[in-house]
Every structure is written in C-alpha cells, then in structure tokens.
Input
Amino acid sequence: MQADQPQEIASEGKDLFAKFDDVIALREGLLAQGREDPFNLVMEKVLSPTRAICNGRDTILLGTYNYMGMTFDPDVVEAGKQALADFGSGTTGSRVLNGTYQGHKEVEQALMDFYDMDHAMVFSTGYQANLGIISTIAGKGDYVVLDIDSHASIWDGCAMGQAEVVPFKHNDVEAMEKRLRRIPEGAGKLVILEGVYSMLGDVAPLKEMVAVAKKYGAMVLVDEAHSMGFIGENGRGVVETAGVIDDVDFIIGTFSKSVGTVGGFCVSNHPKFEIMRLVCRPYVFTASLPPSVVATAETSIRKLMHGSNKRAHLWENSRNLHKGLKDLGFTLGTDEPQSAIIAVIMPDLEKGAAMWEALIKGGLYVNLARPPATPANMTLLRCSLCADHSESEVDEILAIFEKAGKEVGII
Ligand SMILES: Cc1ncc(COP(=O)(O)O)c(C=O)c1O
Output
C-alpha cells in the first residue's frame, strides 16, 4: 500500500487515557457540586511569604513549603537579580558540558559548609536528586529497604534503578530490622528514610533506624526535604537532632522548601562520591539550574546557617497552631507538634473538599491531600507554617478554621 492511500479498515484502538477514567470521574464529581477546584488555585499576586491574592481575595498562605520565609529576603532577591544581569537567564546545557557556572560551584560549596560535609552535588530539582542518586547507587541485584510512606521521587528512583525494593511499615524500627535480616548475605543494601514525612508531619526515629541499618551493613540515605533549614541547631535536619549526621552516607534535600527557590542536592562524605557526576543520568542528561536560581539558593543557604531566631519562632508557631487546632476539636496527624507541618485529618474526601473551600473563602490557603499521596487512604488538610507567620496571623488562622469547621460540621 502506498503511504498516501487511506487505510480501508480503521482498527478500534485502545484509548490510552482510559486508565484515568476513575480520577476524571472523581474530579468531575467534586466540581459538579459547584466547588472551587482545590488543585487549580492561581496566586494572582504574591504579597509576602505568608500572603497572596488568590481568586481575588487576600489570603493567608498556610500550604506552601516556604518554611523559613526566604522567598522575599532582600539579599536573596538581590543576588538573583545580579546573577541574571551578569550571567543571563539560563545555562542552556548540562552540568557536564557547558552548564557549570561559577554559581553552581558556589552553591555546592555553601552546601558543604552548611552540612560540614566533603561533597555536594546540585540537581535541577529534589525529585531528580532522589531519582538520580537512588537509581545510580542501587541497581539490579541490590536491595533498597524503605519506609512504605516514602515520597514518590524515592519510589521512582528505585523503579529506575531496578533494585529489589523491600518496604516496611511506616516508622517501624522492628519491621525494618526484619526486612534487613532476610536480605541475602553479601548483597548491596541501601536503607532510605525521610527526616520528616510530609503528609502527617511526623519525624522518623532516625537514631534507632540508622543504628539498625549500620548493624546490617547497609548504606543509609536520608531525605531531609522538609527539615533542612528548620530542624536542628544548625538547621541540618533530623539527622542533626538525632545525632546521626556522621553515620549517614547520603543526605538528599531540595531548594524548593526552606531555601525558597528550586533545585535539589545530595551531600555525602563518601570518598568516591564525585564519580556520580559522570554516571548519574538525571544529573548528566538535563540542563543545569539558571544562574539566578543558584545565586538565590547560595545566599539563602548561607543565611539559613544563622537562622536560629527564625527557627525558634517557627517552633513557637507550630506549637501554637497544633494546640489551637486540637483545642478546637480537630483530629491531627500527630499527638505533638513534630515539624512545621500540621495535618488535619478529614473524615472523607467530600468533607475535606468542603472544608478546603470554606477555608479558602474565609481567606486561608492549605493543601488538600488525598489518596494515593496520603497514607492509609486519608484525606488531609495539610498546614505548613512559615517562620514569617506572626503570632496574630496564627490566631487569625485558628479563627478561620473554627468558623469553617462549624460551617461544614467537622467540629
Ligand atoms: C520528601 C521529598 N523529597 C523530595 C521532594 C522533591 O522536591 P522538589 O520539589 O525539589 O522536586 C519532595 C517534594 O515535595 C519531598 O517532599
């Protein structure tokens, strides 16, 4: 048959979008009730780390990861502007070709200073840092032992590397040990943990877990995405408060939370770590971060080293919000405040969406989280605090929660 002749019998092809029909129906069901779309919010203007105009309303932001309020820090903004003027808008290339500028080396030095570690490697996102490091170090025949509630980027890194994946019950040290005990003698083992788990805002028992991992000769990677900058005397994360920073092999982090921009990284003391720059595909086969981004990240990281006052105020905010919500009668993800994330558990998705809408109409933005991103099929309203929330803003947040909770019939 010639190429320009129409095919006579068009076969009934399978619509590859059919697998999304359940999600489409769920979404349409929610929107059919006339609800504002919780997954399509537009910030029309951002006024500060804690306030924005959303849907025409002045809104308190309680669902960003801007934990340390660095996005509008004058030194950070100035560093970005200067780098944009001096180096242009982008590198147009991979780190291993034309994409390593002075700024990339400087932000890596800032990370080595921040963590007091020998090596730092910057990726274009935290997602890519997990994807790259995990898939490169744990390959076919190796074993990855990981918490069942691990972030999607960790699971995707495991899938890409094709190691045997052995999940264990969330934060359960005994379950983790049981899995490690069963791994064949001599196999390569990597234990992956997170400092703070972002859905419930709970902290991992890293002291016990790292000790168990070491007992079985496993390497340890800790993702500190939600604790860097805030938790620990120097903001190094849960590894710092647990006293295990020298026992872990890799710390993964992101610039998209406390640092206040975008990017990801891995720091390590492993003597062969630098080889990663040549063998890690998500580092090699993508363009490097723009000069303005690495300049803002470097300035922010260096300022976070001296952020103890902000850290103290953020803890105060976390304690006040946790106590206030508990006193109002909401069910929370943790008994005590453990991080800057406080998760309010909703009875179901419908009530969760109604509550989310009542909050946004009242001038408060939080994250609505639902399965499969959440543990145990929970619907959550995730509140993430900022060091720049004032005491009176936390009071305002509680008043909005009280009004919405009564309106929707949750309290
Ligand atoms: C635990 C964890 N790791 C990694 C990431 C990815 O970070 P990024 O936004 O830089 O891709 C996230 C982002 O939400 C996260 O929560």
The first strand starts at residue 43 and ends at 48.
